[in-house]
Specification:
The chain is α/β, with parallel strands linked by helices. 27% of the residues lie in helices and 23% in strands. It is elongated. The relative contact order is 0.10. Bound molecules: adenosine-5'-triphosphate (ATP) and magnesium ion. Adenosine-5'-triphosphate (ATP) binds next to α3 and β8.
């Protein structure tokens, strides 16, 4: 993306946000020599979710906007929670969103030697010490927001003693938690992060990349800012919780006298009817509440992808929600709206019957087949047309028939007429029931003069139904989804100490006996369609030619557009 002109032509620039203004100012003063270098720094302890997408679009978007660079960096400082499975998934998800880090892929663990050397430097400068207090004692000594902390009895060890103890920590002489290395800053600081934070802890656990080379690991706070510095990052974008850590990162970088990026905080994304905490998402996976990280109900990028959400809709969503400095919760209907807008323009229309009811057209010649011309997308004439086979026996949607309909039911009922999409007008002559009294089949007659969909005598037929030919259609499985949670804010820990109590037992409905038009047997996993009147769908990874499987991405009803119009 060096050619900024073609960038401009391709994508309309999003409106400027406060981060753009800050960077514009840095560029004006030449602070980083006009350079813009960002990074997306996930911890590989789970799959990426829609909140991460906001950060990815922001960081890669800044690089694109300013002709700069964006690194992908795995913040892998915690060996006990991280796995290479997550590294692979993160790469795949960032690529799927359409971003390219051009080989600038780094790991915080690549910097373990440098971080260790810098820790030794701090000790030499009297700015770090080895502490023997345990985790509970350290917490106790730290004080509170209203009370200053107390110095550890080990705070005034000599440089020689600290160097020796730190070396022995590294050599594996002590057990987990027996000693830590702490920065020597200020136990009375108003900002608790400045009260001698821990830099290194002992953890005798193998790391997914460094194996058993280390038994001491840097804390996130000690690794993060220095990793940015090593990579020459100009603008280090992070979420608001890290605002209080910024003075600490500044202190580290100043104490070391190394390149000093500008940290800028923005509000993280929260969405209604979902949780965006990796810890909670992991619990859903581990406890079997969902089928995996890529369950189509999950807010993970792999879940959204499997559900059929196009990456373009996620970009659109991120542009619309913007970047701000105060936390808020976005209505999940906004995301659905973006999905619909994109799918409406691009998804081929097809016919699929989800709850089939058989219709026999008694005056249609047995064995006769007609190939009906069907438009693929009324929103996009260049999408062309296809042939759909019509025959004597078809399926319609069970809910499109009522034996005893109310007024204004413009679908099928005894004696009533409807139009079959792309085919004839039919009239219901007879209802066939089983012993239990359930409707199992309809006997209809068609009007051969109505192939165009219009009656030559001008009589009015209001309803138009979708259908699938029984002789030509393919049996398919369709999976419908609702919100994973029944509560708007299931992540609110005060209201819901156990967020799993908010799980929606109806969030997934499997319809195993659907009928879809023949062309859909060839749908490849990930291909997206509109099923007329039923919503937008995508073929699932479980799909085969013998048994196609589709996930409903979104319904056709746009609740957000309605709300937005009213507002
Ligand atoms: P969690 O707290 O659930 O573990 P995290 O913030 O620790 O999530 P990371 O892997 O550290 O997850 O996140 C990588 C990047 O994505 C960080 O820069 C973080 O600020 C950003 N990010 C994570 N969640 C969100 C969110 N909901 N909205 C915007 N950005 C986010
Ligand atoms: Mg994090």
């Amino acid at each position: 993306m060096n050619d900024s002109k073609s960038d401009k032509d391709e994508a309309p620039r999003e409106t400027a946000n406060f981060i753009h203004h800050l960077i514009d100012e840095d560029n004006r003063t030449g602070r980083f020599g006009g350079r813009v270098h960002t990074r997306f720094p996930p911890e590989p302890n789970g799959f990426l979710h829609i909140g991460h997408a906001k950060s990815i679009c922001l960081n890669f978007g800044l690089a694109r906007r300013y002709g700069g660079l964006c690194n992908l960096r795995f913040d892998d400082t915690n060996p006990t929670r991280e796995e290479s499975e997550y590294v692979d998934a993160i790469r795949e998800d960032v690529s799927w969103l359409g971003f390219d880090w051009s080989g600038r892929e780094f790991f915080a663990s690549d910097y373990f030697d440098q971080l260790h050397a810098w820790a030794v430097e701090l000790i030499r400068a009297g700015k770090a010490y080895v502490d023997d207090l345990g985790a509970d004692e350290i917490r106790e000594y730290r004080g509170t927001l209203t009370e200053p902390g107390r110095d550890s009895p080990h705070r005034n060890r000599t440089v020689e003693e600290n160097l020796d103890l730190f070396e022995r920590m590294r050599a594996g002489e002590f057990g987990d938690g027996e000693r830590v290395l702490r920065a020597r800053i200020d136990m009375a600081a108003g900002n608790l992060n400045m009260r001698d934070p821990v830099l290194y802890r002992i953890l005798k656990a193998p790391h997914h990349r460094t194996g058993n080379r280390w038994c001491i690991y840097p804390m996130y706070d000690w690794a993060h800012g220095q990793s940015d510095s090593i990579e020459g990052i100009s603008h280090s974008i992070c979420t608001l919780e890290f605002e209080d850590h910024r003075p600490l990162y500044d202190w580290f970088l100043d104490a070391l006298g190394v390149h000093h990026p500008q940290q800028i905080e923005f509000a993280r994304l929260n969405l209604t009817y979902t949780v965006l905490s990796k810890r909670k998402l992991l619990a859903l996976v581990k406890n079997g509440h969902v089928t995996g990280w890529d369950d189509p109900r999950m807010p993970t990028l792999s879940g959204l992808r499997r559900r059929g959400v196009p990456p373009e809709a996620i970009h659109d969503f991120c542009d619309r929600i913007g970047v701000a400095r105060s936390n808020s919760t976005v209505d999940i209907a906004v995301l659905d709206h973006c999905v619909r807008e994109f799918m409406n323009r691009t998804a081929p229309r097809m016919m699929a019957v989800l709850n089939p009811l058989k219709v026999v057209i008694e005056n249609y010649p047995e064995g006769q087949v007609e190939e009906m011309e069907a438009e693929n997308n009324p929103e996009d004439p260049s999408a062309g047309t296809r042939k759909v086979s019509f025959g004597r026996e078809i399926y319609i949607e069970r809910e499109d028939f009522m034996e005893d309909p109310p007024k204004k039911f413009f679908r099928l009922a005894p004696g009533a007429e409807v139009r079959l999409k792309h085919a004839y007008i039919i009239r219901c002559e007879k209802v066939v029931k089983n012993e239990a009294g359930e409707v199992v089949q309809l006997i209809c007659r068609y009007d051969p003069e109505t192939k165009s969909g219009q009656a030559p005598d001008g009589r009015k037929v209001k309803g138009t139904l979708h259908w699938v030919s029984a002789a030509h259609g393919v049996r398919a499985e369709v999976r419908l989804y609702e919100h994973l949670f029944t509560e708007e804010n299931p992540g609110d820990e005060k209201a819901f100490p156990d967020f799993t109590t908010c799980l929606n037992p109806q969030s997934r409905q499997v319809l195993p006996e659907c009928w879809v038009e023949a062309g859909l047997a060839r749908a490849k996993p990930g291909e997206r369609y509109q099923f007329l009147r039923m919503g937008y769908f995508a073929a699932d990874k479980d799909s085969t030619a013998e048994r196609p499987v589709f996930n409903r991405t979104v319904t056709l009803r746009d609740t957000w557009a309605k709300i937005a119009r009213k507002g």
